[in-house]
Specification:
- By secondary structure, the chain is mostly helical.
- The protein has helices at 3-13, 18-25, 29-37, 44-54, 58-61.
- Helix 1 (3-13) packs across helix 3.
- It is globular and about 30 Å long.
- The protein starts with a helix and ends in an 8-residue tail after the last helix.
Amino acid sequence: MNIGEALKYQRELSGYSQNALSKNTGISQPKLSYYESGKHLPLIDDCIKLADFYGISLDELVGRDVKGK
């Protein structure tokens, strides 16, 4: 799973549309779309906002499995 797919997975898992997520995080909907489609890598500040919003780690946000390490 790439970063864009992981971001989309977390958004859908939480039941948010891109518009709703944008309103709740302050990250523009076009930015979210670019991130999820893989057109742009997300800014670290935006990753932090998203991880905090979902209540997960940055590793979980981007689909990185660190269990057992």
